[in-house]
Structures are given as structure tokens and as C-alpha cells.
Write a structure and sequence with these properties.
The protein is of the alpha/beta class and about 500 residues long. It contains 19 helices and 14 strands.
Length: about 500
Amino acid sequence: MIGYIAKLDAKRIPDFGRTRPEAFTKPLCGVIYEAALYLHRIGRTANRIHIAEVIEADRTLSRIARDAASDEGLADWKDYFSQADDSFSYMDMGGVFVSECLADIAEAAGRRKAVEIGRRLANAEILPGEAAEALGGIQGAAIKPPPATPMLLLEGRKPNPQNTFFQGRFLCRYGAMLFVGPSGIGKSSASVQQDICWSIGREAFGIIPERPLRILHIQAENDEDDMTEMVTGVASTLFMTEADRQNCIANLLTRQHSTTSGVRFLNEFLRPALEADRPDIFRIDPLHAYAGCDITDTQKIGEFCREGLNPLLNEFGCAVVVNHHTPKTTNRDTSNWRASDWMYSGAGSADLTNWARAIMVIEPTQSPEAFRFIAPKRGRRLRWVNAEGESTIEKVFCHTHGKISWREASGEEAANIKPKGKDGRVSDETLLSYVPATGSISKNSLLHKWNALMGEKKCTNALKALISDGVLFESKKPRAGTRAEVLITREEPPLV
């Protein structure tokens, strides 16, 4: 394994990283493998020069390497490279053979651990229940904490640019971002626009990528035709060059999945997808579809995020954006909310907020086409400024007229935006803007759109009042085999 990596890097080794450094019986092999694994995760070539740099820069690893070299009679631990067998590096299937060797090493480590558990059980050192639990926890090798770092040694250390995905380090490798908003306001189209822009290194919604990012977009709610509409609408407003389009094709992948959740989603779908696609960032849309639990249950959602997603982020060296809904009731007073309030605007357990590294919230306004984008967690890192040049965590973005895409509001538009009032009241003019001047809209669709502005009961009462006042009209359209569809229009329907 060491001879192959030193010659050709680890990128040609399938499933590299599935074996833990502790699985090696020789400490020097474990140290070299740990350094190679670190380089692989951050996207650097794991050759002998870079491996040596990583080991020498870490006091614990360098000490272990020196001691192990001394035990093996080597003057310098780097001499181990020249002694390593590099014959696999000359074979077409060499990477596969090395992968099989790593799997054998992991399996052997698991056997050693199992034998030790059996010995302790036979000597009555542990109870049968404890033995069963310990055996269940075996994952190929004994789990040990990584070496601790003296905190003061971090002083003055520059962040690794390869780990920074967005300017200001808003979201970095191994981190998670919550993208929160009510249903039906265009969160999915905003996600598509973000991912297309970020894949070509372009700003989206005030978030600037450090470079073109490789992104995997996983969603459960939109079929292929829905995605086609959104991609077509967004692409038509971005004015991409041919180079941009080729970058996007190479960097942005999408997968539709709606058949598993919880542990099955993590193990049967997400892990293989990350293994195949190797993204910098993957998005799951929405959280409800994949968590496989009551998201108000702190323990269960913690297991999904902290014990399910986090290990995958660490293993594959990526970050995640999680699309999430607000609670169903939306007639809440947000006029005086502070950043600490917006952080907890998503539905479910507060542990979601604690887990996420960054948070972006979409909040409707009294204008049906304009929305506040609020970054309550790490938002200052985006370096947004308002019209007065003051630091802010809020911007306003609008639906593009006639297309499925978004644009930033002009200064005048942003200045005239009115947040929802304290009692959730919305003007009749605003409500009527959702009803086409000619033609009709289904009652259910209209109430769904209004519900982004105020609560269900207020939506129903407002519609009744507008119909009673003769401002809006209700009619029914027969449908075969089911109830008639209720339509709302501005024009009084003709008598039949």
C-alpha cells in the first residue's frame, strides 16, 4: 500500500479511507497511512513528499514515526518508503489490489478486537450484554481518538484554502448549512440557482464561492420535468459562456431519491452516491424526506445529523446544505426578531440549529415577489452591507418576472419592502396580486400561496371577505371521478 501511494497517489485506490489507521499492526504504517488519508480528504496528492510534510508538521505523528523507525532499526523513518514494495504501481489493477489489501487489514483488526472481547467475556471481566454491545461497535478496527493538538499552537495559523468553500469561510469542508424557508415560495428553484452558480464559481444570493465547486444535488420532491423547468428558467437568466456551461456539466450532478430515509438512506443511497460522485458539497432537499424520524425528537435528529451525516462529511471531505421547512403556522410576529430568533426559525428540534455551521433563512414579505434572505448564523462573514454602507445579515431577492429564477432586488425595491406586520395582517392589494387579472387560479393553490404570508384561518377568512365584497368570485369546474375543482377569479363568471 505504501509503495503504491508513494509512486501513484491514492486516487486510483477504490474505497480508500474505509480502513482506519489504527488497524495497522505496525505503527509506522499507520502513521504514513493517516497522513495519506488526510491528504486524500483535502484533495492533495498523497506522494512521499507531501506525506513527509504532513508527518513532520504534526508533533505527535512525527514522534510516533521516529520511535517506530528506531524500533525497526531505521536511521530515518523516511527510509521506509525506499523499502516498500511498489510492484502494484506497475499493474493496471494495482489500485484494486491495494484496496483489497486494505479491506483485509481492516477485517483482521476487527477479528483481533473480537478475540479480545471473547477473552474478557470468558474471564468474566465483562458481562454478556457489554460483550454484545462491544461486538456491535466493531467497524473494522478499534476506535481511538485522534491525537490532541496543543491549543496555543493554533495561534497565527492560516486557514487551509482547500478547506474553504465560500468567501469569509461561511461554509467550509466538513460543515453543514441549513437553508430554511416556508413551502411554496421557490426554495427549490433558489437551490438550483445556487448550485448552478457555485458550480461555475459565480456568486449566488450574496454567497461567493472561492472557486468552481463540485456539487451533488439530492432531492425528493421534484420529478425530472420539475427539475427541467427550474434548470431551464435559471439558466436563461445567467448568461453563461460556453466555458461556464462545460464547467457546470462537469461539476454539478443531480440525483432524485424518495424511497428510503434514516439509516437506510445514509447507508444504501447517500454513502454510495458520495463514493461515486465525490462532491465538495452535497445538498439534501428536504430534511423531512430523509431524516426518517420525528424532527422534534432531539435524540433521533441528533443521531441522523451527528452520527449519520457528520461521519460521512469527515470520511468524504465534503460539506452539506440541508433544505428545511419552517413550522406550518406562519402568522408569527417576526418584525422585531433578532439573529438569535432567526436561527431557530426552522421546524423541529433546536439541536438542528446547534448542529448547523451556517444558516440562511427565506422570509416572505408583503410583496408576493420579494423575499428577505437572512443569514443569522455566520452571516457577518458574508460581508453584506446595506444602502447606508453598514454591515448587515439581510438581503432582498425577488422572483424574476415570467421565469423560474431569482434576482437581487434593486435599492429602491429593497427600501420599499414591508415585512409582515405584528398581527400577520396583509393588505388586500397584496392578496389580490396572487390572482391573475384574467383567467383563474385554483382555490387550493391560492390559499397555499397566501399561507406563506399568514396563517390558514386568516387566509380562509380573507378569501371569504373578498368574495363577500364582490372583489373575487368562486366557480366550480367539474372533474371526472372526483370532486369539482374550485376556481377563484377577479371576473364574475357567466351564468350557466
